[in-house]
Specification:
single chain, binds pyridoxal-5'-phosphate, globular, 357 residues, 18 strands, D-amino Acid Aminotransferase, Chain A, domain 1, nine-stranded mixed beta sheet
């Protein structure tokens, strides 16, 4: 793949956040973006990097009406030795292709996708924040651009990648979160689009998340669409429980997102000879386990937070605490190991780290 690069003129560079200013998440965007077009019949063309700016779309572009869209999320960061690194970007590129297949969008060769990320990150490396655990968030996105209101897979597609500096997720400490168990709304049903990283899943989740926030909760825990009985995932993360010493997480049965961090956690736990089970988890088992202490830890896993300890679950008006709302031992061990590998303090035995330069 050949990428043409049009750099932003010096006097058109975007304003960088002040040093010391909290970066937040998804607020700042770097100088450049990657774009590539696709047409049914001729395939991908015109891979290019251009100054970050608005896209031009027909108001009838299919993505705006029927939501044919997918995305990814990963980070570039400075390792301890000053190298710019990516964590398992091949996993994100492969997952984008699985999401694409589900949403009738075209696949991208994994090596082209990674090459696009590398070229873009290298060009905008000055945007990678230096602060502890801060990073450059990378958002690959694919949208249906064909103009027309017929309901069918778009014959024209745009793939783009934008990036932007984000702050450390735990700027205020590794605090366990309060979770509301959602028993009215559902995120995804088996056979639906839950296992694809597609915008519509998030649109469907907004109302429940908004109501939970109003009641003072940080996230919602989704239950299965059929019975509201089995645990699925939490907000934008996969969920893990330590039940009677066993690390348990719901299986990838079609309605949950196959997280890269989830896979990393499972791989490490198995190496550490911790008993691991990917099996359906009943919400009642979680609630009674929290109450009687057989549930010793619960945590979410995802790229942004890496590991997010759960302090309590609230269900039908009753709140039960997990481990006295303190961060569990395994949660902390996993967090330290994964960030240690990412930053180069711990040997990268699995070749998870891709150096950009
Ligand atoms: C992206 C995402 C995750 C976490 O995936 P990672 O690859 O670990 O970042 C979990 N659940 C949902 C719904 C997601 O969109």
């Amino acid at each position: 793949m050949r990428i043409t690069v049009t750099q932003a003129a010096e006097n058109r560079r975007r304003k960088r956040p002040e040093s010391g200013e909290p970066l937040g998440f998804g607020i700042h965007f770097s100088d450049h973006m990657f774009l590539m077009d696709y047409s049914h019949g001729t395939g991908w063309r015109d891979a290019r990097i251009v100054p970050y700016g608005p896209l031009s779309l027909a108001p009838s572009a299919m993505v705006l009406h029927y939501g044919q869209e997918i995305f990814e999320g990963l980070k570039a960061y400075y390792a301890r030795d000053g190298a710019v690194c990516l964590f398992r970007p091949d996993r994100n590129a492969e997952r984008l292709n699985r999401s694409a297949a589900r949403m009738c969008l075209p696949e991208i060769p994994v090596e082209d996708h990674i090459a696009a990320i590398r070229t873009l990150v290298r060009l905008d490396r000055e945007w990678i924040p230096r602060g502890e655990n801060a990073s450059l968030y990378i958002r690959p996105t694919m949208i249906a651009t064909e103009a027309g209101l017929g309901v069918r897979p778009s014959a024209e597609v745009l793939f783009f990648i934008i990036t932007g500096p984000v702050g450390a997720y735990y700027a205020r400490g590794f605090d366990p979160v309060r979770i509301l168990v959602e028993d009215t709304y559902v995120r995804a049903a088996r056979g639906g689009t839950g296992e694809a990283k597609t915008g519509g899943n998030y649109a469907a989740s907004l109302l429940a998340a908004k109501k939970a926030k109003e009641k003072g909760f940080d996230q919602v825990l989704w239950l299965d669409a059929g019975h509201r009985r089995f645990v699925e995932e939490v907000g934008t993360m996969n969920i893990f429980f330590v039940l009677r010493g066993e690390l348990v997480t719901p299986p990838l049965s079609g309605s949950i997102l196959p997280g890269v961090t989830r896979d990393t956690v499972l791989t490490l736990a198995r190496e550490w000879k911790i008993p691991v089970a990917e099996r359906p988890v009943e919400i009642d088992e979680v609630l009674s386990g929290a109450a009687d202490g057989t549930l010793s830890e619960a945590f979410g896993s995802g790229t942004a937070a890496v590991i997010s300890p759960v302090g309590s679950f609230s269900c039908r008006g009753q709140e039960v605490r997990v481990n006295g709302s303190r961060t569990g031992e395994l949660s902390l061990r996993l967090y330290r190991e994964i960030t240690g590998i990412q930053y180069g303090d711990i040997e990268d035995r699995h070749h998870w780290i891709h150096r950009v330069e």
